Amino acid sequence: MDLWSSRTGFILAATGAAVGIGNIWRFPSVVGRNGGGAYLIPFLIAVFVFAVPLIILEINSGRRTRADIVATFRDVRPGFRIFGWFIVAIVILILSYYLVITGWILAFLVSAITGGDISLGSFTATYAPVLSFTVSLGIVAAVLSLGVREGIERLTTVLMPLVFVILLGMAVFSVTLSGFSEGVAFFLTPDLSVLTDPLIWSAAFGQAFFSLSAGMGILITYGSYVGEEMDVPEAAAIIAVADVIVAVLAGIVIFPIVFTFDLEPSLGTELAFSTLPAAFSLLPGGRIVAGAFFGLLFAAAITSAVSMMEVGVSTVRGETQFSRRQATILVSVLVFFLGMPSLLSYTPFQLQVWGTPFLDLLDNSVGTLGLPVTALVISITFGYFARHEEVRVPRIERLTTTSTKYLLPPVLVAIIASQLFLGFDFPGWHTLPGSTLDRALVSAAILVCIGVLAYLLLRLQRAAAK
After folding, report:
1. Which of 70, 107, 217, 297 has its CA 20 to 30 A from that of 272?
2. pLDDT higher than threshold 70 for residue 463
3. CB atoms within 10 A of CB 218
4. Region 138-166 average pLDDT
């Protein structure tokens, strides 16, 4: 049986799943544009009152069944396995375009190390993204083929401390910049008037769940490798604190650089691949800073990608007779072909749907709407249908039960409604064209298609079992 070798190994692996590129390139600017330090109030409430109890529930559910996510749902009710397949489909689709972005980061990292000159425009004007995507996918597959201890745990034991060391080093460096005071003020100065805006709360809750990988089934999968001696509430709290620290440190690193050179504090890909590289080129030792930054991004991206693919690998292993290596190859091939449309949308092929790059369409539908939907499915399934004694958490039972059963579902419904009907742009870096109704219909249609895919996977699994 696959088990983490130690408590530290699990915490580092789970932190690696939580800490991704969104912590570093999106969170700081979202804070700065949404009330500064005031935004941290709803964000921290979302993290510790809502997301952490869901994380605890996921880890406990996985530890109890010692099985993949489909089997974990089937254990609650046989018919609920369809929900497990639905979540697997969502996670694999997110991974398919997440690895495209990871490939971009790898290319910029190599350019910084070798002294090359690269821009996102020139890079995506070629078919070089195909190679960087394939290499990134190959790295993730190689790690997973080695197993839980020798692969995932060994990788995160090296990379997660490295992430913190690089962040701390860059934070110390940012103190020396002329824009440090202005940048930190933009990032953290509170504007308490924004707390009456419901969209700020929606953004904070969405960011909290997206940042911590809560409700994606990743921690159900990782939880199935946790030993009985693990203090799950303590581990969940450490993971959440580490995730918040990374996000805040990223802001302390990024905004002094932006304000030193009077650059626009933009979001997402523009910030990472245009704004900051322009600033790095003006800094003394800028190539070293650029290398550290893209090394940081790549480490965060790879550990998150590994956790997402493990959801698929674990499911294939659990629902078939495949070995880990065979399951890894199968899922890797699936991700490669699913990633092709997103990959080709940022090459000379320029694959678009309704005038929008396919990657952006997928991110604004599956990435934005899929995560709160999967979190809602997990919360309701294990909050209302699982046997109480199997998911109860000693010491903090009242908090976890109240949060996951009574508070979290209506909050998630509100987040989903705001995404569908208010057109709020989270967590994507572009907004779908058309009216609010158009965006709602497109997003809902894609989720329905994913549901159909999950049903077909279920039918295939049943046929294979006969």
Report:
1. 217
2. no
3. 28
4. 97
Whether the CB-CB separation of 132 and 343 falls below 8 Å is answered with: no
Share of the chain above pLDDT 70, in %: 87
Q: Which two tokens stand for residue 188?
A: 């953290």
In a domain, residue 1? The reply is no
- Side chain identity at 157, as an amino acid letter? T
Query: Measuring CA to CA, which residue among 172, 198, 203, 210 is closest to residue 43?
Result: 203
The owner of tokens 């880990």 is 324
- Count structural domains, the chain: 1
The pLDDT confidence band at residue 358, using thresholds 50, 70 and 90, is very high
Q: Which amino acid type is present at position 343?
A: L
Query: Quick one: which of 322, 327, 21 has its CA closest to 163?
Result: 21
Task: For helices 81-114 and 69-76, give the axis angle rounded to 10 degrees.
Answer: 160
**Burial (0-12, 13-18, 19+ Cβ within 10 Å), 20:** buried
The Cα 278–Cα 261 span in angstroms is 9
Give 116: exposed, middle or buried? Use CB within 10 Å, 0-12, 13-18, 19+.
exposed
Residue 38: pLDDT band with limits 50, 70, 90: confident
Structure tokens at 42: 């709803």
Report residue 294 CA to chain centroid gap. 17
Residues sharing a CB contact under 8 Å with residue 402, sequence separation 6 or more, in sequence order: none
Give per-residue pLDDT as tens, 375-431. 999 999 988 888 755 566 666 767 777 888 888 988 888 888 877 776 544 444 444
- Note the pLDDT tens digit of each residue in 100-129: 999 999 999 999 999 888 899 999 999 999
- CA-based nearest residue to 454, from 305, 306, 310, 319: 319
- 151/425: higher pLDDT: 151
Phi and psi (nearest 5°) for 352?
-130, 155
Residue 180 located in a structural domain = yes
With a CB cutoff of 8 Å and minimum separation 6, the contacts of 43 are 31, 204, 207, 208
Domain that holds residue 32: 7-465
